[in-house]
Design goal:
Elements: E1 3-6, E2 11-14, H1 47-71, H2 80-92, E3 96-101, E4 105-111, E5 114-124, E6 143-146, E7 149-152, H3 159-174, E8 181-189, H4 207-213, E9 224-235, E10 239-241, E11 244-247, E12 249-258, E13 262-263, H5 273-291, E14 300-308, E15 314-315, E16 318-327, H6 330-350, E17 354-363, E18 366-368, H7 370-384, E19 389-391, H8 402-405, E20 410-418, H9 442-460
Parallel strand pairs: 5-8, 5-9, 9-20, 10-19
Antiparallel strand pairs: 1-2, 3-4, 4-8, 6-7, 10-20, 11-18, 12-16, 12-17, 13-15, 14-16
Helix pairs in contact: 1-3, 1-9, 2-3, 3-9, 5-6, 7-9
Bound molecules: zinc ion (ZN) (2 copies).
One zinc ion binds near residues 1 and 159.
Length: about 450
Amino acid sequence: MAVQQAHRSQTSTRSTLRAGLSALSLAAGLLCLVPVAQAQGASGESLQAQIDTRAKAVEAQLIAWRRDIHQHPELGNYEVRTSRLVADHLRKLGMEVKTGVAKTGVVGVLKGGKPGPVVALRADMDALPVKERVDVPFASKAKGLFLGKEVDVMHACGHDTHVAILMATAEVLAGMKDQLPGTVKFIFQPAEESPADFEPDGSNMWGAKQMVAEGVLDNPKVDAIFGLHVTSGIESGKLGWRSGPAMAAADQFRIDVKGRQTHGARPWGGIDPIVVASQIVLGLQTIQSRQVDAMLEPSVITVGTIHGGNRMNIVPEKVEMMGTIRTYDEGMKKDIHARMKRTTEAIAASAGAEADFKVLELYNATVNQPALTEKMAPTLKRVAGDGNWMISPKLTASEDFSFYQEKVPGLFFNLGVTPKGTDVNKAPSNHSPEFYVDEAALVNGVRALAGLTVDYMTMAQR
Ligand SMILES: [Zn+2]
Ligand SMILES: [Zn+2]
């Protein structure tokens, strides 16, 4: 989930966006909006009842996996130990397993006993350069290299739980393999938060984008993809989701303002890029507030760094700024980029300075396909139970799950992990050194992913 990262030379942000709903695959969809979990397995017990029994049986192991992975966190593209653990497990379950996808990614394919659609389930495996401050016996003491520097490493975004949940889901579904009308693709991807050796110009690909480029959605071709994220913003065990744009696109921008250096006592002898940069910062803030349609979608422009000058009495030659843009609509995003460029250049020109505006699109918006969301919502409601689910608000954080959703219908939902009785608004957020997971919530992640898989497959049979 959304990220901020430090670059070698300066700070930059990362994130996501993208709205365009890909071709709706209504085929299997709208014909049956009823949850299907009551479909009977060979044993006579409903598939959903079997999922619940099997999920309960694997819960202790799930928590043990989570603690092990939590204690051994690895940064983006260096998830070597984690991916070995995953690959060994999937092989043990009798799956065809591919390793080394997008560096350390692992993909397992489970063929059901009956023909049917291909459902992909995704977990991200990477940790963050954060020093853990949670007092648990399995707290991380790990170190790693981030952008060439040694850092403390922690699963501060909860991707340890995602891996453990998907491993447990694999175990549950593999145990019901003969009854499954379709194929499940288990996708364990690296570097959701970006790689530990990120190129400052963002020219390299990583994580989900790279997995897609390497064909993870083909052979067999994926019909729908599901994924989850644990969050401190929701009470333990509760599920949350929303149809359409759910998480923001994140773009990084950089502005170089070039003036003319002179003595600070005689500013008229040069062109002051610090004053110009200050005007640009304020000018950019008028874009959301005065120029774009406030009723369409929210947007955020943040200037996160300003660097210029080295002495109090020198007007410097140049100022460099970096920041992040968050949007939910592709057209609005492009419009904001154009307005930022125009504002930057025109303000600079008004002072006789020059400005260069560059934007790097990092993550697209996470957009839950409305048809798929509508179709699968009854499953999530059933898994969560009455009063234990919610329609989530939009988040300005980003997720590279969006890159799968650009290609195939996808649904990304949240699982609450803040202990009951704690104020979710005060609980340390994801990416905090105090981010805490109530492990009792995790089994619901297994029930949800397995439930979505089985229901989707069964609905396609009708
Ligand atoms: Zn995350
Ligand atoms: Zn994150």
